[in-house]
Amino acid sequence: MSKYLVVFAQAHQEFRVPELESVAQLNNFKISLSDEPEERDPSRPFMIIELESENHVRLLAKRCILIKSIYEFYGRGSTYEELHIRNRAKRQMWERYIPETSFKFIVAAYNHKIPQHRQKEVVESFAYMGFMGKIDMKTPEITLGCFEEYATRNGHTRERHEGDGDFLQVYFGRLIEEGTARPLVQLFDVKKRSYFGNTSMEAEISLLMANQTLACSGKLIYDPFMGTGSMAYPVAYFGAQVMGSDIDGRQMRGKQTTPGVFRAASQYGVTPRIIDICTFDVTNNPWRCGGLFDAIVTDPPCKYCTLFTDGVRAGAKRLGRKKELDADRLALYHEHRTNPRPDDSPYIPPTRPYELSDLAVDLVLLARYLLKPGGRLVFFLPTVTDQYEEVDIYTMLCDGMEVIANSLQDFGSWGRRLVTIHKVTSELYPPPDFSIRDPEMKDETQRVPAHQHFREKYFQGFKKTEEVEAANLSHLL
Known about the structure:
Blueprint: E1 2-8, H1 16-26, E2 32-33, E3 46-51, H2 54-63, E4 67-77, H3 80-89, H4 91-94, E5 103-110, H5 116-124, E6 142-149, E7 169-178, H6 183-187, H7 203-212, E8 220-223, H8 232-237, E9 241-246, H9 249-253, H10 260-267, E10 274-279, E11 293-298, E12 317-319, H11 327-338, E13 351-353, H12 356-370, E14 371-384, H13 391-394, E15 401-410, E16 414-423, H14 454-459, H15 465-476
Parallel strand pairs: 5-6, 8-9, 8-11, 9-10, 11-14
Antiparallel strand pairs: 1-3, 1-4, 2-3, 4-7, 6-7, 12-13, 14-16, 15-16
């Protein structure tokens, strides 16, 4: 296997490795990462990977949203002297370009701006390579890149070129492929979409979720909390067929004759791949057989607003009543259902809150029933930063389901985790019964996951339970 240098876009650091591994699996090739924690640190802007061929490089660059470019790796060092020694040792990799190949050099840095005069000095330090071809800055046959990595200085002001040359590492290689998937972020920009809501998922995140589903032609993917369809469009764009449902059909339909989800889908040319949208409660679903879908992708309603506001709206709902009807109201209800009047409005069934930790458990059970063997469940789970522990993700698992990725999008006191769960069994399971769990029957010795009662914690400012009780007591006094 050959080594390659991946240059990442500066966004969503924890999503980088899961995306690389998912796209490699999608295209049926192996990707090897270093066993050293420092080498595979997702917070660093450069990563060295091993692949079997340049064709695999091009497949990654074509599909990975977080890749800016990939280079054939020639060497690195903590100083230029160290880099040049290693680059000279790799002469067999670049000597074929010496005679007549046109070329250009790129000298760049992470967390720093290199002055023009030193960029020139860096280029001239590679004179020993002896390239005899023409320098072509527009259409070169090869591009050589030199990248300096500087330490992050968040919260510190500094002069433009302060600390120039005090880099951590410098990398060098030949460009194989520029990342061509990043322009999709602009293509799917929510603000340019013909139909969206204030909780529509931002484009970059929805594209990353689509990659986690391994979406491609011939696959069938389901979103049980479809809303305005943010996950459906990139999944369909990558070739998959999509089925969506929501307890509130108004979110999917909008106010025009043509449902909003289909209007937005036509904007991206994927309408034929949206099989249908259905209105039903996922706990009272019409699925009468399992093993239907290759993947389930969704953003369960907690619910935080993701587009224009940093807030929380109404939480998840399921069919049912918060309180049972008294005898008089129950009699009126049965009368209305038995003999509806012509002028009556359509019946809107009552709903009750759906606690997030219960929803997460039920979603995994539903995925085990509906997914084909090897299928994936990809969803977001909001958690309280100070309370989160790794075990929280495993509280929702059941037999036959295994976590393969857990990436955090950090918002400070809270964050949302993109969880990818893999169905590892071919055993047939019955559909989940979605029984309502009695809070008083829960085991008090069992750990309370950081996502339980998330919405309430959000409005309390993520205060600890003792602080909330003390505040309530002082208010009463």
